[in-house]
Design a protein that fits this description.
Structural class: alpha+beta
CATH superfamily of the largest domain: Probable tRNA modification gtpase trme, domain 1
Pfam families: GCV_T, GCV_T_C
GO molecular function: aminomethyltransferase activity; methyltransferase activity; transaminase activity
Radius of gyration: 20 Å
CATH architecture of the largest domain: 2-Layer Sandwich
CATH topology of the largest domain: Gyrase A, domain 2
Strand order of the largest sheet: 10-11-12-9-3-13
Function: The glycine cleavage system catalyzes the degradation of glycine.
EC number: 2.1.2.10
Order of helices and strands: HEEHEEHEEEHEEHEEEHEHHEEEEEE
Protein name: Aminomethyltransferase
Length: 358
């Protein structure tokens, strides 16, 4: 089965990107190298092709009210121009996907993960009455521009005043003459925008941003950046069998404000009983890198699992996310991670590992 290609595929090849199969798409994993791309985003500005992500437009009467039945976050606080990061839940309170909801007034835009696009679409169509779903996943491009200089770089090629768009807000504007959806959101821990545009406008926008100094970045740097910022990766850190209370996303659950949503009873029961495990941040020493699925050991027994791990390019030491029993989740607790044939100590630390200066 052939892989899907984004509107920026040819340009990525011209930029000598190393490509990989990601969720059925042929995507750039790196251009100049993960460390260089990572540093560009932390210190200057980088751009990512994220056109593989799912892009849905929901229309109909009372779209947000209908959508409220599927998410635990209070959507009443949304208004046109604002956005909400949240999760879709199954009846057990497990996370079907994490996504961003953009309120556009007469319609709602959803950006979902590439690997779950078909699953999410099916779920939404099954549970949303009197709502029409338009799937723009393969007709539109999505470019993320991230870093301390992201806003000033993008401002050079758009007619809209970006300074008035606050974090988790969005607006439409012209970018090089192309009507574009501009959202001040991202997945790196830095300031920046995500630009959604019809496919025929993507190449010109990417090239212009590159000419203004933006470094092309791949999925490799995107992963190290998001991990430093302790942002969950669906399918690794959270999934259908983890609840937002366990996954460090309890701030998305508004039981006192939302009386009815799929999974509410399960979350209310779990909150009353208390969770038995939690996703925590770990810091290790030296070159001891805890990778995905490495076991956490206590008294010669596995008691937890590492979900994500890397040598932090910014901090210079290994960091990881892991599920551990709640009694070991306190900051400062030392646990053991099995790395190949040995166990090494890891300390539970406060998340995020890295936070951009404001």
């Amino acid at each position: 089965m052939s892989l899907l290609r984004t509107p920026l595929y040819d340009l990525c090849i011209q930029n000598k990107a190393r490509m990989t199969d990601f969720a059925g798409w042929e995507m750039p994993v790196q251009f100049s190298g993960i460390k260089q791309e990572h540093a560009a985003v932390r210190n200057q500005v980088g751009i990512f092709d994220i056109s593989h992500m799912g892009k849905f437009i929901l229309t109909g009467d009372h779209v947000l009210r209908s959508l409220q039945q599927l998410v635990p976050s209070d959507l009443d606080k949304l208004s046109p121009g604002k956005a909400q990061y949240t999760v879709l839940l199954n009846p057990q309170g497990g996370i079907i996907d994490d996504l961003i909801i953009y309120d556009e007034g007469e319609q709602v835009t959803l950006i979902v993960n590439a690997a779950t696009t078909d699953k999410d679409k099916t779920w939404l169509l099954e549970h949303l009455a009197n709502v029409e779903l338009h799937d723009n996943s393969q007709t539109h491009a999505l470019i993320a521009i991230q870093g301390p200089k992201a806003v000033e770089t993008l401002q050079k090629i758009t007619d809209i005043d970006l300074s008035v768009i606050r974090r988790y807000n969005h607006a439409y504007g012209q970018v090089l003459g192309h009507k574009s959806f501009l959202a001040r959101t991202g997945y790196t821990g830095e300031d920046g925008f995500e630009i959604m545009v019809e496919a025929d406008g993507a190449t010109a926008i990417w090239q212009a941003l590159q000419e203004h100094g933006a470094e092309p970045c791949g999925l490799g740097a995107r992963d190290t950046l998001r991990l430093e910022a302790s942002m969950a990766l669906y399918g690794q850190d959270i999934n259908d069998e983890t609840t937002p209370l366990e996954g460090g996303l309890s701030w998305l659950v508004h039981l006192d404000k939302v009386p009815n949503f799929i999974g509410r009873d399960s979350l209310a029961q779990q909150k009353a009983d208390g969770i038995t495990r939690r996703l925590v941040g770990l810091q290790l020493e030296g070159r001891n890198i805890a990778r995905h699925n490495y076991p956490i050991i206590q008294d010669d027994k596995q008691i937890g699992i590492v979900t994500s791990g890397t040598l932090s390019p910014t901090l210079g030491y290994p960091v990881a996310l892991a599920y551990v029993p709640i009694e070991l989740a306190k900051v400062g607790t030392v646990i053991n991670v099995q790395i190949r044939q040995k166990t090494v100590p890891a300390t539970v630390v406060k998340k995020p590992f890295y936070k951009a200066s404001t």
